[in-house]
Sequence to fold (290 residues):
Amino acid sequence: MNLSVIPLINTILSSFVNEQADLTCPKVPISVDTLTGSFPFDGLAQFPANYDCGIGFKIPTGKVLKFKVQTQADHPGDKVVIRDSIGTLNEFTSPSSIFYAAAEKATVWVKTESSSSSFHFTWEYIDVSGFTDIEKPSETIIPLNLTANHYYRFQAISQSITLLTASLSGGVDSSLKNIYVYDGDDLDSKFVGNLEQFLKNKTPKSTGRFLTLVNFYRLPSDSYLLVADYSQYRNYDFVILSKEKRYRINKSASTYGNEVLPVTVFYCVDSNETYLTDLKFGNTTQENFW
Fold:
């Protein structure tokens, strides 16, 4: 968004601020019995200094909770923060934001130090039990533009499965935060974080044979996903190629015993024919090519 537009947005929002709103903090956690709602009830409202309110939400299996958050805050100590079911704190500073909270719980905190900020958020429980499943085996590569109202189920050959991502830009893809990971074979399984969080785990793998991915935000991604059987490989890497770009890459890997193989996967997104011009092995006993 053009920065010159933000003051105009804030001016428009100011004209709708309700300075007489009921800001009483709910004491009882909100459940699916209240499918939709808002706080404050009458819309964007100005909050007093030193306000501190945490509103709990119960999210049953098969549901996600969609939040729409409005903020108009100039003081850094005035904020809206949503804590999700795995304890991640998500702070909202944009004039308007959307966030999806997975089962089983979430807490929305509104905190202020000044008396000059205004906030409002709405919630809506969404049933995801009717989403269509797309089943993929391990050793699969797919673009991460996941289809709306679908979830992607990946199955390991043996005990557990892992994921790697790569993009043409080679940089950090912020859209990975929009893809949610469930440790199991559907959206009733345990939510373990977004894809960016999952990949940062010391051991990024499923506890069983399945992992499930879904994108509730319907936003695009320029990354690709490699799904692999965790028991077969260690030290693996994933590189995206394009015929429009030249690459010179130096990679190294180590072999651990006889059962674990290092792998580098090169995948070209726009060519049916890809070849290496130079490949050297040092102290190599076994090579695998996909």
Residues 5-127 form a domain with the Jelly Rolls fold (CATH 2.60.120.290). The first helix runs from residue 5 to 14. Confidence is low (pLDDT under 50) at residues 1-9, 11-15.
